[in-house]
Design goal:
By secondary structure, chain A is an all-beta fold. In chain A, 0% of the residues lie in helices and 58% in strands. The chains are: A mainly beta, B mainly beta. Chains A and B meet through strand 4, strand 5 and strand 9 of A and strand 5 and strand 10 of B.
Chain lengths: 114, 112
């Protein structure tokens, strides 16, 4: 059974720092991996999607990497801002479920202080 | 604006009183699904639908029903809600399997 773990569960940094969020998964047979952002009272917003054949994806100050063989992904946020404060969720799409569902980690709650 | 909408956003009800949470998307997506989010457990899939009239169970389908009579709508039905169904519910859609999933704003349900 696929399991997704995110460490740390919470992170607090001052504005301007570069930071890395970690995601690990137990089964490397995945179709893709997505990083989401969740703001309080709002839904999930997709940040980056990495296909299993890709190594990384970039969007603005965000860079996500994928090492499928080791079951790891990282989300790098450059020059963090208070507006980046949110919970970040990692999710994988396993191959052995017929691509029907995402398996989510429990998230990393990020607080960026001015 | 491309979006997934859910109603209601907040709901307080009592045990056994049937309720429906609506979900609608305006992106002509074929794939839709429902998740519930609980502290410490993350998001877990309840039901999903590949297309109109095609639905199937996710990881935690007990106590829930769904229907997909139209492509844009995918309501979640709780026939006899119980307190353990108190949760935050999300509807999601995507154009096809493996593509980016778009999530609704969530429905916070409290069952007394």
């Amino acid at each position: 059974k696929q399991e997704v773990t995110q460490i740390p569960a919470a992170l607090s940094v001052p504005e301007g720092e570069n930071l890395v969020l970690n995601c690990s998964f137990t089964d490397s047979a995945i179709y893709n991996l997505q990083w989401f952002r969740q703001d309080p009272g709002k839904g999930l917003t997709s940040l980056l999607l990495i296909q299993s054949s890709q190594r990384e994806q970039t969007s603005g100050r965000l860079n996500a990497s994928l090492d499928k063989s080791s079951g790891r992904s990282t989300l790098y946020i450059a020059a963090s801002q208070p507006g980046d404060s949110a919970t970040y969720l990692c999710a994988v799409l396993p191959m052995n479920t017929g691509f029907q569902k995402l398996v989510f980690g429990t998230g990393t709650r990020l607080l960026v202080s001015p | 604006e491309a979006q997934v909408t859910q109603n209601p956003r907040y709901l307080i009800t009592v045990t056994g009183k049937k309720l429906t949470v609506t979900c609608s998307q305006n992106m002509n997506h074929e794939y839709m699904s429902w998740y519930r989010q609980d502290p410490g457990l993350g998001l877990r899939q309840i039901y999903y639908s590949m297309n109109v009239e095609v639905t199937d169970k996710g990881d935690v389908p007990e106590g829930y029903k769904v229907s997909r009579k139209e492509k844009r709508n995918f309501p979640l039905i709780l026939e006899s809600p119980s307190p353990n169904q108190t949760s935050l519910y999300f509807c999601a859609s995507s154009s096809m399997i493996g593509e980016t999933q778009y999530f609704g704003p969530g429905t916070r349900l409290l069952v007394l």
